[in-house]
Amino acid sequence: MNNRLRIALQKSGRLSDESFSLLRRCGITLRVGNGRLVCCSDNFPLEVLLVRDDDIPQLIAEGTADIGVVGNNVLAEYQLRQQITLSVVRDFKFGYCRLSLAVPNALDYQGLESLQGLKVATSYPQLLRNFAAENQVVIEVETLSGSVEIAPKLGLADAICDLVSTGATLEANELTEVATILQSRAQLIANNKILSPQKQCILQQLLQRIEGVEIANEAKYIMLHAPKARLEQVVRLLPGVETPSVMTLEGDVNRVGLHAVCRETIFWETLESLKAVGASSILVLPVEKMMV
Ligand code: PRT
Ligand code: ZN
Description:
alpha/beta; six-stranded mixed beta sheet; five-stranded mixed beta sheet; 15 strands; 29% helix; flat; binds phosphoribosyl ATP
């Protein structure tokens, strides 16, 4: 019996690098063979299935994989199509995009009613149909599996509903974004109903490591010297600090040393404000690992 937790990851695409890097930062090393679709970790009870992102929800629903990393866009479309719900175990800070409606620049768009009766091309037919129904617009949905952005130029559709990140693709195809249907990001999903207690345990361990990696990513360790009399002011300027360590400085009774973990981003402006209230010798260091 295989007691490894099986995770489905996108083999190659926009989510792959971040997914593999996350496992690496969790201290999980993988033996990835050339062209292999399954690989194992030799230091964590994890098995990785390398697949197309669109297949991930189905693999989890049928129990071939226990968990997976997929965009909310793919999950939401799958759940509407299959009328089932998978659990979202964690939202990630990558894979950000939005599913939007876009129309040719030349179209005189006055609001959603301008789409009435038009043909809209998309790879997300269920999400589009739902949005149209909620907004009482009747449209014809043309389902395409790719290259949706060129559909209007090819005469296949009047408008499109596609993923947008920077907007450069829409601009290059003379399209204007007019409404957002869904905000999306990568998520860790699971079929909680069929996970054995042993696999639940491995999942919890993985989640704890992911949490540690994400906190450490944002966190910075800050060290500085500050006038004793202005200590309170200095601490107030440090973002997300709970309990700083304060220590005496050899040969200086008026100043103290301060060490603290800042849970939020430290901007240059923060350092400038610290200097303005008398702090000096300010050092900001990355935090590699953290367990709270
Ligand atoms: O082969 P496989 O099926 O696994 O990959 P794929 O080609 O279907 O997916 P891939 O790798 O393109 O995207 C995987 C996931 O990344 C998506 O499901 C989203 O959750 C997420 N993601 C984030 C994006 C984008 N940003 C994105 N910009 N997916 C696609 N795009 C495309 C979009 O379709 C459009 O063609 O990028 C273009 C728009 O980008 P901008 O920057 O020009 O606006
Ligand atoms: Zn895909």
